[in-house]
Amino acid sequence: MAKNKEPRPTFAVSVVGLSGTEKEKGNCGVGKSCLCNRYVRPSADCYYSEHTSVLSTIDFGGRVVNNDHFLYWGEVLHRGDDGLECRIQIIEQTEFIDDQTFLPHRSTNLQPYTKRAANTKLQSAEKLMYICTDQLGLEQDFDQKQMPDGKLNIDGFVLCIDVSKGCNRKFDDQMKFVHSLYSQISKTKKPIIIAATKCDECVEQHLREVQMFVTGKKNLMLVETSARASVNVELCFNALTQQMDKTRGKPKIISYLEAYKSQRQLVVSVSDKFEKLIVQTVRDYHTSWKIVSNKLKSHPDYEEYINLEGTKKARNIFSKHIEQLRQEHIKRRREDYLTSLPKILNKLLNNLAEIETLSWTEAQSLMKSRPEFNFFFIELEQTPWYETDHLDKTDDRRVPFDILKTMEGERIYQNHVQHLISEKRRLEMKEKFKKTLERVHFISPGQPWEEVMCFVMEDEAYKYITESDRRDVYSRHQQEIVERAKEEFQEMLFEHAELFYDLDLNATPSCDKMSEIHAVLNEEPRYRALQKLATDRESLLLKHIGFVYHPTKETCLSGTACIDLKVEQVLANRLVQLDHGRSNIYYNSANIDKVNLCLVGREGLAQELANEIRAQSTDDEYTLDGKIYELDLLPVDVNSGMLLNHSWISTFKPHGFFCVFSSIESLNYIGDRISRIRAEIAQSRRDRYSQPVPFILILANQRDSVCKNMPILRHQGQQLANKLQCTFVDIPSGTFPRKFNESQIKQALRAVLDGLKHNFDMMNPMPSIKDLSETDLRIVMCAMCGDPFSVDLILSPFLDSLSCSAGQPGQCNTLILEKIIGDSRRRIQVTVISYHSSIGIRKDELVHGYILVYSAKRKSSMAMLRAFLAEVQDVIPVQLVAITDSQADFFENEAIKELMTEGEHIATEITAKFTALYSLSQYHRQTEVFTPFFNEVLEKKSNIESSFLFDNSRDGTGTGEDVFPQSPHSHSPAYQYYPDSEDDGEGPPPYSPIGDDVQLLPNPSERKYRIDLEGNEYPVHSTPLGDHERNHKVPPPVKPKPNVLPKPNVKKLDPNLLRTIEAGMRTNRWTRSPMMVHGDDLEASDNYAEPADTLLKFKGFSDDIYAVPEDAHSRSGKIRNSFGGLALHGDEENGFDSMSKSQGGRRPSKYKHRSKILFSKTKAYQRRVHSDVSDDESGPATQKKKKGRANRGSEEDPLLSPVDPWKGGIDNPAITSDPEQDDKKMKKKKAPKIKESKKTKPIKTPKPLYPPTRRNWESNYFGVPLQNLVTPDRPIPLFIEKCVEYIEQTGLTTEGLYRVSGNKTDQDNIQKQFDQDHNIDLIVMDVAVNAVAGALKAFFADLPDPLIPYSLHPELVEAAKIVDHYERLQVLKEIVRKFPPVNYEVFKYVISHLNRVSQHSKTTLMTADNLSICFWPTLMRPDFENKDTLSTTKLNQSVIETFIQQCQYFFYGGDITEPSSAEGTPPPHGHGLESLLALQLPPPLQPQQIQHPLPPEPLI
Description:
By secondary structure, the chain is an alpha/beta fold.
């Protein structure tokens, strides 16, 4: 033992064992190096399992080996169990083999290994510590430590014996070597420890032999080790240390198995801690090992595991954890995708019929074709999806498309299909069960499910669906019937308006009144229907009563449908726009210094004019009358398509148009283009207060200065200018070298500026001689909340007026009109409110007139009108307005007919005015329709105000403060206003029975009177006119209606009503002779008729229509009536004024005392409750009729009218009448009586009707026989196909398709363009869909023969009369087969198209019924001169409706669509049918479709 005085003793240990060449030791050593490595550097990262002994000469001579056959491994600081420390220096004795000769390297010590290994004194100068094989030759890259002092004294030996199977080595040879080696080292007297190496691969026999070897030696210890498993390595050297230092305690020798078990437990424990540490630390699979190792390097669990197992294993554990995190993320994403897939499939493939038979691959292709595909799916370039960066895009919820190709995707698709099938079945059963409940009529509102369940338990649907579905369906059914019952109950309360509105406002109903209410309502089934919901019923009743006596718009029972709220909203929006628009006019028109001029001409004339103007300008600045204007010129050729596109108008914003011509041909082009440009400007300018653009016609000079056509051109140009209401600039006298003269340009520019100034003066509302707070008339318009029409409909006659403005601040429901009434401009205040808000005004406010609006589709609306009107003083004029959808409603709906007739009869009884308004009409609304009413109000103004003042002085009541804060001035000075308007005024009123294309105002160029912006006429005092000089406005010629036949089911018909009907029908029709129009002056495309002085006067036709009063100041003159046939007379013939004069100062009564209807409705409730009241006490309704007055009401006894005469019906609701005036005009005439034919006339084949063509150009396509337009390859004319395709692409959301008339110019343009090029694209033309629809109808109207042959009309009519629905369809199908083949194919195509249109009726509002009304005259082209044709109007229409509804059955072999309840009703037969339909008017037609050519007659 080496002796030294250091505090830490140092011992040198030599590790020896079998060494030498491969022949001696085999392929591998006995484990000396691994044992030394594990002891000196026990950390797993510093342990190397491979240490070679075959070295090159260079490596052998390096400083590590240093030409020695031993290695210095370094030193280990050893601390014993007793706390003593020492240093252990390790030397490995080996034998290095030359890699060239494979013989031992030659060194300074040439002794054999057995003797050399036993040396106790070793010396090697500057020898470095050995670490691993890689160190050799790269010593500078490793830690360099020298062997201390270059020499060592060995204190003990570790003899290594490999107990493994060995590598090509016999164990016996090893033991022989060991015996020899032991004998040599034992001579040194140094401690020896036998280390059995590689025990992890131990061979039991080898171990036993070693044990026997050790046992045979004295003081020799055996330690079983494994350097690779790090088992007992330290124990081996500790045991040797104890022998070298006897002062230390002797360690316990543990067998390999026990030590290995302890070691493995330690490894498992440390590994668990490390794995938990990794799991806790690493949660994102994107984390790198470098980041984790730096983060954990100071953690004891990390350090312990790295030391024990090494970084490589630690990284493997980390990688496995990262992969696990990634797989978990992939799994979650996949689950998310698969979870969302059913929802996606439900959106993309929700049509079971479409996918039921598709394979999964076909379904994938179908999904790709969906527009929403890219919203739900993403197609990746690389697959699978989890190997792409899409895996990490958590914000992208789109599903990778390749996931659909997995088995899970296909399984989900199959489940989706099955779900759709089962869901379809379940919904069908739920719907079937719902229908079953609907058939159980005894289910009442509020009835519990348990009471109903037993009656439906045997139903198939009941058994199929679950109990929750049953209760859900029943709950839904109950909710529907309860809501319907409550709505019907509320509607019933409104229908009994007279029962509730007989008390003053803010009153409280007494007990007797409540008993009366309950007694009356108890008779109503709708009251008893809520028997099981008595609490709700009583709540509804009390709520209604509370609202009746305390009405406010906030508590209105109609909620947001309250008229007051809606009117406020509309007026707030529209009137703000009016004021804004007018301010723009003032701003834009007051100071014009820049003028945009569009120059229109043909063959370069426009450019020449532009050049001439520029030549007269300086830098585009033109001097006129001392003022400089900046001119912006836009020359456009008359044939340019730009003129037909209104987009350039909004861009260029022209102030005027210079239209230049030099020939008849160019003049014709100019005239056509001006009309179209005006239409485009009107369409593009949505601001109704935009200024009309002036057009200037300029005649260009001929270069030769000698042109015979010049007078003709001048005359034609002047005529066109008069017709188009524009300025004509002629060539000045003299000869000029250029086409345009400076005076012409100045004259034209002056005309543009004058036109702009004139428009400004017309539209500027600023100058007014009246204070804004002063009004001449105060009118109240009342409507019922919740009526089925838009508020815009009743406000449009006022808001569409150019002279409409907002009322005073705080009057949200009031507007001000400025109209010329008589010969002065008046300010009219119109307050539009609900009936419940107007009840207070009726008693407390001064009102000059009431416009009472009601819906003809709602009984309660009429009831509210009656209740309100009954309490109105009869001195106040009243205008009744009935509103429904169209004229057809009157003929097809008995309820509507009865309500409209009742309104007409009430108006007749109280001598009020009545008119009908159609919400689907295309007429422009005008206040002109109320002009006669305003005239009457103005005439009675003084009487109304006197009566109001008398009542106020008697009752001591003042005016209200909400609606009318100030009293009007009775006779405010009026001012004269005579503008020269170039505008045609507004369109016709909506109340005319004439077709939609007809305008009711005359051409301004032909007027001998002036009109204001409202279209009101007033005389020019400077030039009195005779009768022959007055212009009469008449509608285009239409066929005369058939004679009126009496209805057999009407017992008594009020003569007033009958005369109203006859007068209206006569004044709205033409006869072919004697009324003739000169053929040269009649244009099919002109919307205006010729002046009246060109017509022969017709007996019974008033020639005073539209006449101007002879004396402008005379109040007894005749006033123009815009209703087309009834003249209104002045004060002397007015019913009320006559009565006032005859009765002197009679105190005004109420309208209920002048109307049998109003009075009887009010008293009916009293008779129900107080049955003991005698007939004589019930009021004047029971008085006997006076002799000679039985057929008409009188002022003295207004109730003596026939019993319920209105139930007979009015067959023309479009007629707007003043009954009192009608009675005076027609009292001397009696209605002709026409006897009914007792014998049924044989059916006549309708005679062909060939209307004149609506075209004004020659065409080789339109108006030719149908067979000339088709071929076997193309059975449908190309024009029809193009129109239908365009309509179905763009028009299936257009409201009123085929009903709303399109612009006639656009229709003509479509056909003209098609004439020139059959390949036109309607989408490129950008025309309105209604124009295309009109062009399509015009195509059929122009055919020489109708599409449905005349020969089949009688058969169709007879088939329509068949009662049985299925038999009727079969007969119709056989008739269709008789069509000519060409007609059949086109008819099939058109009907199929109409069927598709009807399927979009929710947006177009065009059901099969409405479409048939619009199309049957076009397809059948009946002759309305024939009475038989007129009587079958409804049948013809029903035939076309049936074809549309049953299109699949007639043409495609489909099933019959289930008929509605009305379809099974048999049509009327025989004489009853003929008489019932005798007074019906045909549906509105295009005027040109029924207009016959009239022979020319000499003008009068």
